[in-house]
Structure to design on (349 residues):
């Protein structure tokens, strides 16, 4: 009986490891992009159980252990860039208030009523920019105190969990509100002026997740992420993409975004910086992001304490540099074609 259970669980975890290699947009495939670290832990546990519970390590048992080891190697290869042993895409620099900016991003969870926690956090961190998603009118009203701290704001409260609130100490020189894929899901494209007068572009998004009951496929999410990636690539100004992307840092779509945009992920070489799920420690992965163009160095990246939401807030400090030491990925012809097709599919869905 124990052997049968080990075989069933081993086969299942191996299948779920390689299932995301299928480039399907179905939610039940894409969702297994998320728990790579968790799958790695389960693999190691199963290998240990095979060795500990087997009276004799027969050829068949070695086959099962060997299959699990191959799967472990594959998962390790995928997770490696997001460990301290991976290569950094963005070099570390000292923070400079004149040529830098301090960003705080948080999915507050619409039904969360612990408004004071986010107010206290913002006051303690004192960021230049605050971007909050899943904000309805109740959240907008409860955070009115932030208007005393921030001279500039954009408020689009909605009751569909896709409302957003944006606050900035930096002047907003250009403002565009887009509905890139879905008429009910707003995003922002802004030009901000740093203290040294340099203009930068900020894209703030919150695409839909591929989950049953909301969106059976990742088509719209993938399209919105890639549309913003193409916009950033064409933009000569330094730029950031921020928000809850409802996609993990190591997914195929996020890597395609990095190639299309030629932006960099500050997590690489530093850690996973998991922001979701705040209330289930074993099921955590990085869903909230700040991506940077090659013009920036990284001064700080930190997951902040919980605010009563299912997401942890995340903060980043970035500084414009002249060295352009950032490592970026580039898309080949097939990947550019695939991105165009994904965007077309999303817009037509």
């Amino acid at each position: 009986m124990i052997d049968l259970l080990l075989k069933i669980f081993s086969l299942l975890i191996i299948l779920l490891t390689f299932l995301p290699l299928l480039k399907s947009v179905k939610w039940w495939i894409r969702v297994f992009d998320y728990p790579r670290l968790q799958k790695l832990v389960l693999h190691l546990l199963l290998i240990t159980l095979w060795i500990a519970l087997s009276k004799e390590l027969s050829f068949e048992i070695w086959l099962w252990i060997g299959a699990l080891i191959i799967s472990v190697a594959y998962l390790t290869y995928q997770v490696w860039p997001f460990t301290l042993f991976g290569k950094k895409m963005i070099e570390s620099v000292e923070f400079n208030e004149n040529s830098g900016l301090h960003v705080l991003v948080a999915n507050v969870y619409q039904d969360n009523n612990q408004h004071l926690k986010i107010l206290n956090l913002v006051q303690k961190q004192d960021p230049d920019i605050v971007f909050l998603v899943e904000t309805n009118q109740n959240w907008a009203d409860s955070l009115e105190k932030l208007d005393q701290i921030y001279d500039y704001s954009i408020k689009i409260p909605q009751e569909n969990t896709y409302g957003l609130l944006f606050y900035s100490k930096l002047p907003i020189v250009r403002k565009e509100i887009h509905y890139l894929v879905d008429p009910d899901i707003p995003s922002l494209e802004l030009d901000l002026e740093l203290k040294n007068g340099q203009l930068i572009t900020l894209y703030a998004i919150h695409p839909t997740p591929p989950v049953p009951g909301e969106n059976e496929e990742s088509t719209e999410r993938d399209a919105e992420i890639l549309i913003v990636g193409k916009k950033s690539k064409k933009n000569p100004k330094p730029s950031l993409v921020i928000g809850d992307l409802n996609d993990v840092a190591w997914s195929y779509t996020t890597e395609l975004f990095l190639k299309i945009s030629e932006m960099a992920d500050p997590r690489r070489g530093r850690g996973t910086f998991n922001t979701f799920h705040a209330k289930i420690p074993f099921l955590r992965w990085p869903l909230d992001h700040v991506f940077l163009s090659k013009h920036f160095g990284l001064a700080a990246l930190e997951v902040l304490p919980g605010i009563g939401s299912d997401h942890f807030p995340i903060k980043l400090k970035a500084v414009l540099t002249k060295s352009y030491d950032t490592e970026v990925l580039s898309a080949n012809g097939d990947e550019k074609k695939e991105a165009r097709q994904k965007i077309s599919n999303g817009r037509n869905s």
